[in-house]
Design brief:
Strand content: 15-25%
Largest sheet: 6 strands, mixed
Number of helices: 9
Number of domains: 2
CATH superfamily of the largest domain: Ribonuclease Z/Hydroxyacylglutathione hydrolase-like
Structural class: alpha/beta
Number of strands: 14
Distance between the termini: 39 Å
Oligomer: single chain
Order of helices and strands: EEEHEHHEEEEEEEEHEHHEHHH
Strand order of the largest sheet: 1-2-3-4-5-6
Shape: globular
CATH topology of the largest domain: Metallo-beta-lactamase, Chain A
Length: about 250
């Protein structure tokens, strides 16, 4: 399988998995034009579309793609039913695309119906986990997002995180403001700053990397707990997760 990222809008990535025969899977096509351009250039043959949630920058290109490829199956959660999904899926479902099995699991938080698609090593997580950060809580709660992160954190180190936005530099600026002396965070911030200075992508990343530098996966970390305890005493990791999300919202 070949993993490809297609830039869209100002900071979105549309992910495409293709096989050696040119068949491909498209994930969260917020707009159609860059996808159609890539299909023509690469001579891909689209087989399916995955939608993680209902926001327009993830579903806006579906209608046009279906006009070009009317036989495409569009898999998505119930909240995408009026956005072009033709096959609704939910936690526990197994989908076979490109002769690979993808498991679906619910990751509410950013939206209430948000889902992820996973086929080792690829995780298509939409706006749930970003490199160095997590999605905004537009519909769900911090507790829900914490539980969604726990599901992702149960996956293997080698999992390739395919998130939908180039937010890494901003996330690492926040992380280093919280733990300025953390070696892993300092090193990753420097790397990301260099990549973005050259207009290069920071994605995808491995879950192993995220466990080191993503504060939202480090709610049991002693250094982070000490920082939080200077302001408030929070006993539970989901409370620390909520504290982080609140701080990031106002950063």
């Amino acid at each position: 399988m070949n993993l490809n990222s297609i830039p869209a809008f100002t900071d979105n990535y549309i992910w495409v998995l293709s096989n050696d025969n040119g068949r491909c899977l498209i994930v969260d096509p917020g707009e159609a034009a860059p996808v159609l351009s890539a299909i023509e250039k690469k001579q891909w043959q689209p087989e399916a579309i995955f939608l993680t949630h209902h926001h327009n920058d993830h579903v806006g290109g579906v209608k046009t793609l279906l006009q070009h490829f009317p036989d495409l199956v569009v898999y998505g959660p119930a909240e995408t039913q009026d956005k072009g999904a033709t096959c609704l899926v939910q936690e526990g479902d197994i989908i076979t695309v490109l002769e690979h099995e993808f498991s679906v699991f619910a990751t509410p938080g950013h939206t209430l119906g948000h889902i992820c698609f996973y086929s080792f090593p690829y995780l298509f997580c939409g706006d749930t986990l970003f490199s160095g950060g997590c999605g905004r809580l537009f519909e769900g709660t911090a507790k829900q997002m914490y539980q969604s992160f726990a599901k992702i954190n149960a996956l293997p180190d080698e999992t390739i995180i395919c998130c939908a936005h180039e937010y890494t530099l901003a996330n690492m600026k926040f992380a280093i403001s919280v733990l300025p002396q953390d070696k892993a965070i300092k090193e990753y911030y420097s790397k990301v700053n260099d990549l973005r200075g050259k207009n290069l992508t920071t994605l995808p990343v491995t879950l192993q990397n995220e466990r080191r530098i993503n504060l939202f996966l480090r709610t049991e970390d002693d250094d982070l707990i000490r920082v939080i305890n200077k302001e408030t005493n929070l006993q539970h990791p989901e409370e620390r997760f909520a504290w982080l999300r609140s701080k990031k919202d106002n950063f």
